Amino acid sequence: MTQRTVLVTGGNRGIGFAIAAHFVSLGHRVAVTSRSGEGGPEGALTVQADVTDSASVDAAFTAVEQELGAVEVLIANAGITKDNLLLRMSEDDFQQVIDTNLTGVFRVLKRSSKGMLKARFGRVVFISSVVGLFGSPGQINYSSAKAGLVGMARSLTRELGSRGITANVIAPGFIETEMTAVLPEDTKKEYLSQIPAARYGSVDEIAKTAAWLASDDAGYIAGAVIPVDGGLGMGH
Ligand code: NDP
Question: Which CATH architecture has domain 5-224?
Fold first, then answer.
């Protein structure tokens, strides 16, 4: 397997941390961004970046390029929720989620594309969500952003696919992390009752899918949405 320079946004905890740790275990050169500049897994370089700030994203990429070389694999994972029913959702809560989960991905994608174009190689993986295509009450902001990532990956594929760059989307279902730990027990039970696999997913199951999409074996997979959801979103 070819060793790559990998950058994972939001790699200080949850799914991003597990993805970064898995890439380290496979022998890749791994960098993670975190808002504090700390907290990535052992063996990874942690750099500070807030994906809502282009200058901070640019500085993080420059630091990674100096230490590890140009980013060949981008895992755009950083994300937030600000759930509320439509009538109670403020425009600010809508905008903040779009700015982090959609425009934030555009910022890191644009910055990483420079090196990928030069190398005529790149693997881009967006961490979307089952709710991007399935929908979810109380998550109009979040599901809009996550659905937007599908369009972004597919447009990128049409724009840069001929330059050795692939872009794919992982759509996780309900994964046990801090993001889902804060949900009310009733909501968690409701989700569980709808999951054909009858269990929540683990961060490792997302990490292994991300590593596979970045591997040599997945070179002809482009513009795909890969569900890792125990069947929750089947048909979407
Ligand atoms: P966590 O809340 O555990 O972690 C979120 C990560 O994103 C943290 O590292 C956080 O950094 C980072 N982050 C948030 N805002 C910013 C920002 N402005 N700039 C840089 N980094 C930021 O979430 P999960 O691990 O559960 O989720 C990871 C991704 O997976 C998200 O995109 C989420 O939407 C998606 N997902 C999660 C599912 C789940 O069930 N858990 C299901 C489907 C998708 P910090 O520590 O600084 O806050």
Answer: 3-Layer(aba) Sandwich (3.40)
